[in-house]
Amino acid sequence: xxxxxxxxxxxxxxxxxxxxxxxxxxxxxxxxxxxxxxxxxxxxxxxxxxxxxxxxxxxxxxxxxxxxxxxxxxxxxxxxxxxxxxxxxxxxxxxxxxxxxxxxxxxxxxxxxxxxxxxxxxxxxxxxxxxxxxxxxxxxxxxxxxxxxxxxxxxxxxxxxxxxxxxxxxxxxxxxxxxxxxxxxxxxxxxxxx
Length: 194
Ligand code: VGL
Ligand code: ZN
What we know:
A six-stranded parallel beta sheet has the order 3-2-1-4-5-6, with helices on both faces. 24% of the residues lie in helices and 19% in strands. It is globular, with a radius of gyration of 15 Å. The protein is of the alpha/beta class and 194 residues long. 43% of the residues are buried. It has four helices and six strands, in the order βαββαβαβαβ. The protein has one domain (9-191): 3-Layer(aba) Sandwich (Rossmann fold), CATH 3.40.50. It has helices spanning 35-47, 118-124, 137-150, 171-182, and strands spanning 9-14, 52-57, 97-101, 129-135, 154-163, 185-187. It binds pyrazine-2-carboxylic acid and zinc ion (ZN). Pyrazine-2-carboxylic acid is lined by residues 15, 26, 57, 65, 73, 110, 135-136, 139-140.
């Protein structure tokens, strides 16, 4: 696979926040492993003056996905908390557009497209193809990729810049296969033409 970046391309960094990194409240195994590869993609995009978007899980304290509310997850990514901040090592450019999601207490929203106006924003910015990486493969990346394809954006899945929660062993691999079945093209950084 050989990928030439050009106008119409955008990078989407999904949920690279402290609570999803080792030591965080909902730690993704090796979640910190996405930071270095994502920084390489970010550099490739900024060098070409192409847009970078970054989503954040951004929950109210009483979000319905939290165990205290009968949901599946420990409390995580509470809006404005330390755990909700982007990893400091993530080199987001000053112009990165931040997409907050999951901000409504009564609604789970794994996808960056859910209730955010993100598709409209991308169309306004003339984006046609999204390169997507981040956390976690089997939740927010999966659902974001699914919605991106449903909204008719092309998707390149950054295989070297995603990690899975793997609540059940194999969840991450199944999610990757599902995203490819739906039309996402898997790439690694070396596939990008210099
Ligand atoms: C996520 C579980 C709960 C994610 C968010 O970003 O993948 N996973 N909330
Ligand atoms: Zn969440």
